[in-house]
Amino acid sequence: MKKVLLLTTGGTIAARTGEQGLAPDIKCQDILQMLPELEGFFEIESRDILNLDSSNIQPEEWQYIAEIVTEMLPKYDGIIITHGTDTMAYTASALSYMLQNLCKPVVLTGAQIPIERMFTDAKRNLQTAFAAVNAGVEGVTIAFDDKIINGCRAVKVRTLGFNAFESISAPYLGEVYADGIHVYAHNMDRKRDTFCLKKELCTDVFLLKLIPGTNPEIFDRLLDMKYRGIVIEAFGAGGTHFERRNLIPKLKKLVENGISIVACSQCLYEKSDFSMYEVGRKLLECGVIPGRDMTTEAIVTKLMWALGQTEDPKEVRAIFNTDYAGEVTL
Ligand SMILES: NC(=O)C[C@H](N)C(=O)O
């Protein structure tokens, strides 16, 4: 029988309606009581570690969760973490980098409807998470709506639909059917070294979505504010305007000041390629790091993590040229 640790952090899955609206309240023991069918199949221990809507989960919480996972993992076959859906993809990505060479399942799950309500998806999602642990799907994953998604490829794409998450530019790792869980790929050939926690993060990272007419002076302000990393969501396959409002000299200045800039596409699907158009090449020429087919969530957290590991922009670039958890196609 597999030994599983359930950690709860809050989110809608554990929410009740209070005077101020929905807020997390339900404890792990109550959650487990609602899933009596798991008892005969798993040896389960549980612990409430946070009680937050995921909008309140920030880099400090990612580090706290990573510490607990690192401490507890040797005693279990896998760990399931219940978490709000709104920022689950950020937490999953951050954990993917912090928990280096992870070779056991760490599965995040949650719900669109609280577990105590009719039509809740919480039980099904938890069952899927347990199935992922049982199947030994390694690494940080998200179990949701019968799918297992690599954590650093997940994006929340729906506010209300049960299919809230998609796996972007990467196949699902597994799916649940009537005959059980189908696991497609879980040995991603990347765990060569021993597991270790690398939890240092730099929170001085800013995300800017370009609009037609973005004022170039925004980049001077970001320099004044001492950001060390900037993620730019550019247009289409990769481009920004240089007519009339030329962003390029400003970006050059930032790079000269040692700031790491990573650029990706505003389009959710498919890769960016900044070498394709003149409007993209100019970014590469001033030293911007291409985000390739990574999600914005995976880039933002990777930049925070990279800047936590090194002060050298060249090493940050080298980190972005490395695939740690299946987050990027090189
Ligand atoms: N479905 C959810 O869990 C949404 C909630 N606001 C959260 O992220 O905590």
From TrEMBL:
Q: What is its EC number?
A: 3.5.1.1
Q: Name one GO biological process term.
A: amino acid metabolic process
Name the protein family: Belongs to the asparaginase 1 family.
List the catalysed reactions: L-asparagine + H2O = L-aspartate + NH4(+)
Q: Which InterPro entries match?
A: AsnA_fam, Asp/glu_Ase-like_sf, Asparaginase/glutaminase-like, Asparaginase/glutaminase_AS1, Asparaginase/glutaminase_AS2, Asparaginase_C, L-asparaginase_C, L-asparaginase_I
NCBIfam families the record matches: asnASE_I
Q: Which SMART domains match?
A: Asparaginase (SM00870)
GO MF terms listed in the record are: asparaginase activity
Q: Does the keyword Hydrolase apply?
A: yes
Keyword Hydrolase assigned to the entry: answer is yes
Domain Asparaginase/glutaminase C-terminal, first and last residues per copy: 204-320
Q: What keyword terms does UniProt attach to this protein?
A: Hydrolase
The domain of life is Bacteria
Provide the protein name.
Answer: asparaginase
Q: List residues binding substrate.
A: S54, T85, D86
Residue stretches making up the L-asparaginase N-terminal domain: 3-186
The record's active-site residues are T12, T85
Instruction: State the organism named in the record.
Output: Mediterraneibacter hominis
